[in-house]
Amino acid sequence: MKNGSFRLAIGLCTTIFMGMNTVNAAPEGEMKVTLLGTGTPIVNINRFGMSTLVEAGNQKLLFDVGRGAVIRLHQIQVPLRDINSIFFTHMHSDHLTGFPDLYASAPLPTDDGHSKTPISIYGPVGIDNFARGIEKAFTANNEIRLKGGETNEPATKISDHFLPQKGGVVYDKDGVKVTAFLVDHGHVEPAYGFRIDYAGHAVVLSGDTTYSSNLVKQAKGVDLLVHSLSIGSRELEKAYPDYVQHFYSYLANTEKLGQVLNETKPKDAVISHISLYSKGNIGRASEKEILSRVSENYKGKFLLGQDLMSFVINDKGVTRVAYDPNIRQFEPIKQN
Ligand SMILES: [Zn+2]
Predict the structure, then answer these.
(1) Is the N or the C terminus of the chain less surrounded, counting Cβ atoms within 10 Å?
(2) 294 contacts 252 by C-beta, under 8 angstroms
(3) Closest Cα partner for 185 from 212, 152, 145?
(4) How far, in Å, from the CA of 41 to the mean position of ligand 1?
């Protein structure tokens, strides 16, 4: 999509004025899902760390905050102060490392900043240590910025909440409901997926998982399923089977993903959190290989996620909105 049409899409959002800050709310009855980062801990210039933004009604909810999530929010001009709550699927680093940046940047007196409230996070066991650790790590920064008038006391705090051990509804506000459910990420316990319901529509985010019957239950017939994938090329699987099988034991490979898609039949599906393995002189699987191997197992509608791709979900169905390659290169704030 060309830059102009992307801006038009942003312009179509309703603008609500809240004091000196503005919040772009999704139109009534519509959900918008944006893949901020589709990558993993494996460093990749095109795939930032895992993070998904869900906009529904007057809510903006963030699921995982991987590497570079703040940059991606800036690129789509969603101010950090507008994020209502953050949900972490599990405590693997690639779902967390973008959070300290968000925490430290949200209160600053910048275009993206001006947060005046504690940042609200939900996560599994360990989220309390994570929250207190970050507050502690930024103690000196916060003291300096308080002295300089660049932050405020409430915004230096993190309001952390445990996800229920066995899952359940964790958030229900203004018609937006978030349900956490346990998934199977092997030795990583607990690990959760999330289902977001709004205005008769539903989106399921798998989190990191191999085949999970809980996920299948939650995702049957949903509007959009965002699912993770791990893949080594056929060549890599042959050369280093043990290396690749280790990852396949706790993250869905193309066969497991195909099974989930066949059993859930979502209206649309997108692969995000794409673990692309390489070793020695054997490179990562190409996008062509990924698509062809998933297609061997699933004949329904799906696509390979890209950072900043989004999906609009309303009574007309699910509309894919392609990412604009220019936007990844383009600083959105005007220069004088
Ligand atoms: Zn993980």
Answers:
(1) C
(2) no
(3) 212
(4) 9
Q: How many angstroms separate the alpha carbon of residue 291 from the centre of ligand 1?
A: 22
> Domains plus CATH for the chain?
3-329 (3.60.15.10)
Q: How far is the CA of 91 from the centre of ligand 1 (A)?
A: 7
Pairing of strands 21-25, 14-18: antiparallel
Ligand 1: centre distance to CA 10 (Å): 32
What distance in angstroms lies between residue 185's CA and the mean position of ligand 1's atoms? 7
> Tokens 């967390």 belong to which residue?
96
Among 186, 177, 293, CA closest to 231: 293
Distance 90 CA to ligand 1 centre (A): 7
Q: Calculate how far, in angstroms, residue 141's C-alpha sits from the geometric centre of ligand 1.
A: 30
**Residue 122 near residue 172 (C-beta atoms within 8 A):** no
Distance of CA 93 from the midpoint of ligand 1 (Å): 8
Residue 106 CA to residue 119 CA, distance in Å, equals: 9
d(C-alpha 259, C-alpha 24), whole Å: 38
Task: pLDDT tens for the chain, 336 residues: list them.
Answer: 333 333 333 333 333 333 333 456 778 899 999 999 999 999 999 999 999 999 999 999 999 999 999 999 999 999 999 999 999 999 999 999 999 999 999 999 999 999 999 999 999 999 999 999 999 999 999 999 999 999 999 999 999 999 999 999 999 999 999 999 999 999 999 999 999 999 999 999 999 999 999 999 999 999 999 999 999 999 999 999 999 999 999 999 999 999 999 999 999 999 999 999 999 999 999 999 999 999 999 999 999 999 999 999 999 999 999 998 888 888 888 777
Distance from residue 88's CA to the centre of ligand 1 (Å)? 11
Instruction: State which amino acid sits at residue 273.
Output: H
79 Cα–ligand 1 center, Å: 27
In angstroms, rounded to a whole number, what is the distance separating the alpha carbons of residues 42 and 11?
35
Separation of 94 CA from ligand 1 center, angstroms?
7
Q: Measured in angstroms, how far is the CA atom of residue 89 from the centroid of ligand 1? A: 8
